[in-house]
Structures are given as C-alpha cells and as structure tokens.
Write a structure and sequence with these properties.
Layout lengths: L1 E9 L11 H6 L1 E9 L6 E6 L11 H5 L4 E6 L11 H17 L4 E7 L2 H13 L24 E5 L5 H8 L4 E3 L2 E5 L16 H33 L9 E3 L28 H4 L9 E3 H8 L8 H4 L7 E6 L7 H10 L5 E6 L10 H15 L1
Helix pairs in contact: 3-4, 6-8
Keywords: Hydrolase
Protein name: Alpha/beta hydrolase
Organism: Acrocarpospora phusangensis
C-alpha cells in the first residue's frame, strides 16, 4: 500500500537573515514529502530537488513510489520566494535531506534535479564528492568543505536546464538600456521589433547573445560595487549589508518566437504565456532579487549552480532526460549537460512529445518515471 508522510528535516543554519518568516527561521526545519510502499523495506530513495519550487506535491512522487522506490519531494528554505536565495544554502538543504534519508535506512539515493533543479543537483553532487567552497560569491563564510555532504549514488537531470544563471541570461532582454526604464529600448537588440524577426538572422542572434552577457555582467559589476560600498558604510557600526532590486525583461530568449533556433517539437511561447508579457510580469522569472542573491543565483560568471561547469567533475552515473516539446529546457541544454559528463556511465533520453510539465500527457510523465527507476538500478 502506498503511503505519504511529511518529513521534518533538520535545517543547517545559513548564517544570514534571508528568510522573511520567523516561524520558518526559528523552526530549524525544512520539509519534504515521502511516498513509499509500506510493504517494501527501505532501499532506494529518489529525491527530487529545485532551489525554490514547492516539490512537496511533485507530480512524479506517487508514480515513482508505485514502481517500488521511495520518492521524496523537497521544499528548500526558500520555497516560494527566491528573492534572497543563496544557492550554497540550497546545497546545505539537499545535504541535510540526504543525510536524513540515510538515517531512515535508505542506502541508495538517486538525486533528481528537475527544471531549475538541474544546476543545484550538479553543484550538490560535485561538492559532495569533492568539496571546495568555503564562501558564497559575495564573500560570506559558508563552508561546504566542513558540511559533511553525502554524495548521491546516481544523478538525473529531468526536464532540466543547466542552471538558473544560464537560462536567465539566455532570457535577459538586452534591449533594456536603463535598468529603471524598461521601455527605453535599443531597437538594434530588440527581439520584439518586427524589423529584427522572427525569423532571426545568425548575425542578429550572435549580437543579441553578446548583449545579454553584457547586461548580466553590468548588473553583476554594480552588485559587487554596491556590496563593497555597504561594507564600507557598515564598518565599525551596524548597517544594512544587502539591498533588494528589480530586474526588468527576463523572458526574452529568441527561441521563444523562432522555432528554427534549437529546433524541437515545441510551440512558440514561454511557460508564462506571451513572451512580451512574461518579459515584464512579476510572476515570471527572477524580477525581484538582492545583491547577494544575484551573485549566487543569477550572475552568469559568479553563480556556481551551473551544470555545464559542475558535471565534468562528477563521478557518479548521470542520466539526462528531456522532452522534445519543452519550451524551457531546450535540446541543446540536454546535449550540453550530457556532453559535460566525462565518464561513460551516462545516458541521454528523449521523451517524444513531452513539454516541460507533461501537460495533458500523464503517460509521458509515467515514461519519465520508468526511465528514472530503471536508472536507479
């Protein structure tokens, strides 16, 4: 019989006040859902992670448990609010959950990075196998070398992109000239200007991608400078050491409108509807952040949760599963992550017709679960 229980996982303190809720902060716990078959002894646990999404109710949990493994969906300390998220703290949360599962008797852990969890899963596994990080990108002490991280036995990138900073930069609107005036736009770098496409020429795409990196790095330089100024002001006395800010234009990837770029079975658009609307609406990706969170989560050069960079050092077997109709995690993402693995214990699986959330296709979600359980061995 399948059962579901809520797991309270002891939370490793992060050292900073970056969770608004005192109830959450002082509880000393993060939470996960465990689905299992009570007729089976503890054995393999499949842990599904994301930096900020609430995976307690993840669609794959019951399907996985029905195939004989325990299935766990994690909610990190930043669940539902990534405005002050520090990726290195998310690594601590994954580590605490894996340790808790070991204590419950699960001797085999399969770590699944789903969607934006891909970069987190890769970073976790790399640090668990060979820990090196002692500070956040902002320079705050956070010692993963002393955290006792337990490596997962296998890793799965499921409908995943390589990391939030990567996909964010690929969607960052380079036509925004002034960070405070999002509609003061550079027509030469505006994918929404019909003069530029779609279809978009190779020359425009190259110029556009360069502009996206430039904008990300301008924001990063400003964040680093401002953190330094705050430290100087606070020297010798109390004062704020972080500030919130807004980023306009974060859903402007040319692939959203030009299906010939990174060809697949997807339809035009984003996970949040029209690209032009999603580019500015608050509920889409990464509009509200802080100086420190920007460096850890969204900075292309400073964020460590980048599967392209982390997977080459991972020794555990890695499977990459992607959908041919996904409009968020593209075929090039899947291929890039697969190619980044430097050993032969790797597998690349395409699920034909699957979009990012398997909308209307529970049969395809079930196929993904079949692949994960088979990979779990």
């Amino acid at each position: 019989m399948l059962t579901r229980e809520l797991l309270p996982v002891p939370m490793t303190p992060g050292g900073r006040l970056d969770i608004n809720s005192g109830v959450a902060r002082l509880s000393g716990k993060i939470w996960a859902t465990l689905w299992k078959d009570d007729r089976r002894p503890a054995g393999t646990a499949v842990l599904i992670v994301h930096p900020s999404s609430n995976f307690i109710g993840h669609y794959a949990l019951e399907e996985l448990a029905s195939r004989g493994v325990a299935a766990v969906g994690l909610a990190t300390r930043y669940v539902g609010n990534d405005s002050a998220l520090i990726m290195e703290n998310c690594v601590l949360d994954v580590g605490a959950t894996i340790r808790h599962l070991r204590e419950l008797g699960y001797d085999r852990i399969v770590l699944v990075g789903n969607s934006g969890g891909g970069g987190l899963a890769a970073l976790y596994q790399a640090q668990a196998e060979t820990p090196t990080i002692t500070h956040t990108p902002a320079g705050d002490p956070l010692d993963l070398t002393a955290a006792g991280l337990i490596p997962a036995d296998r890793v799965v990138m499921a409908m995943a992109h390589p990391g939030r900073a990567v996909v964010y930069t690929e969607g960052l609107d380079p036509a925004v000239k002034d960070e405070h005036r999002p509609f003061d736009r550079d027509p030469e770098l505006d994918m929404f200007d019909p003069a530029n496409g779609p279809a978009y020429s190779p020359e425009f795409v190259a110029r556009y991608r360069h502009g996206q990196l430039d904008r990300n790095r301008r924001i990063t330089d400003w964040a680093l400078t401002t953190i330094g100024e705050l430290r100087d002001r606070a020297a010798g006395g109390a004062g704020p050491d972080d500030l919130p800010f807004v980023v306009h234009g974060t859903a402007a990837d040319p692939r959203f409108l030009d299906l010939a770029l990174d060809p697949s079975d997807r339809v035009a658009g984003t996970l949040w509807g029209s690209p032009w609307v999603a580019n500015f609406q608050p509920a889409s990706l990464g509009h509200l952040t802080s100086l420190r969170s920007w460096l850890s989560q969204w900075s292309y050069d400073h964020s460590r949760a980048n599967a392209y960079r982390e997977l080459p050092g991972v020794k555990a077997p890695v499977m990459v599963v992607y959908g041919s109709a996904d409009c968020a995690a593209f075929p090039s993402h899947a291929r890039g992550m697969y190619d980044a693995v430097t050993h032969d214990q790797r597998e690349l699986v395409e699920i034909k017709g699957a979009d990012h959330y398997f909308q209307g296709r529970p049969d395809l979600a079930a196929a993904m679960c079949d692949h994960i359980v088979e990979w779990a061995g």
